[in-house]
């Protein structure tokens, strides 16, 4: 006998995932996600195989997931962010009445929050948890749903019409960037570098950032791993401010004037001693390694700083 969705389960699941993922920052494995319990019983939150998860008996879908795509490979579904700051999720198949499509449509009609599992790594598969998200429209011609990462249903559904369209668009774009693009970029970069600083090999994710080689101009897409470097906090700041540069042949350079300075252990070991050394950690896969042109662009900036510094 299928059972209806237990009262309070959806919110409990979202709260639990938020806690478990450190507010949506740390990606989770399938096993992590399987740990969820409600009223003393295990409850599956993610579809075992395909994208949309509507447990039997539930009126509305609970979650959906996007598979991880390797850099440079076309995604299996064309789930994209639009200029409107909304994401798109393709129907399951082409039949609008497939139970999974009906489940997403019901979540839209009932204005229920959903969980989006965004694949950010494989072997093992890891997912960024973005929850809540809200389905705000269906686009039958494109056989897809439009959804937002806005944090509450009021914002998701009421902004449109009540506010200037441009304001709405910018708000939704900002939410997309903060809640989806930034954490996904961080996870993908840290995963490629196996949670180590490329400069000094420090291996504590809590002290690591995903640094952009050049500023991320693309507001819409998830920034490419090839424009990222895993760096500890101090090296990230030093890299951004051109205290430290990376030669396109992967050799670390420290700004000239800093090499002359006499100071404590951070300057000595954390910066000066690294001058002329190769990057300590680079991704195992060539496809994840920094883009040469981007490194050259950034290195020119460093050279200009070191000449004037
Ligand atoms: Zn470091």
Q: Name the bound molecules.
A: zinc ion
Strand content: 15-25%
Query: What is the rounded distance between the termini?
Result: 73 Å
What would the principal axes of the Cα set say about the shape? elongated
User: What sequence of helices (H) and strands (E) makes up the elements?
Assistant: HEHEEEEEHEEEHHEEHEEHHH
Classify the helix fraction into a percent range: 25-40%
- Uncertain regions: pLDDT < 50 for 5+ in a row? none
Your description of this structure?
With 309 residues, the protein is of the alpha+beta class. It folds into 2 domains: 9-190, no CATH class; 194-308, no CATH class. The chain has 9 helices and 13 strands. The protein has helices at 9-20, 30-34, 99-109, 153-162, 165-192, 233-240, 256-260, 265-271, 292-308; strands at residues 28-29, 37-38, 41-42, 52-53, 63-66, 87-90, 114-121, 126-139, 144-148, 208-212, 228-232, 244-246, 252-254. The strands form 4 sheets. Strands 1, 4, 5, 6, 7, 8 and 9 form a 7-stranded mixed beta sheet that branches. β2 and β3 form a beta hairpin. The protein is elongated. The mean pLDDT is 90.
What labels would you give this structure?
2 domains, alpha+beta, 309 residues, binds zinc ion, 19% strand, 13 strands
Write the layout of secondary structure elements.
Elements: H1 9-20, E1 28-29, H2 30-34, E2 37-38, E3 41-42, E4 52-53, E5 63-66, E6 87-90, H3 99-109, E7 114-121, E8 126-139, E9 144-148, H4 153-162, H5 165-192, E10 208-212, E11 228-232, H6 233-240, E12 244-246, E13 252-254, H7 256-260, H8 265-271, H9 292-308
Parallel strand pairs: 5-7
Antiparallel strand pairs: 1-8, 2-3, 4-5, 6-9, 7-8, 8-9, 10-11, 12-13
The structure holds zinc ion (ZN).
Zinc ion (ZN) is lined by residues 197, 199-200, 202, 231-232, 235.
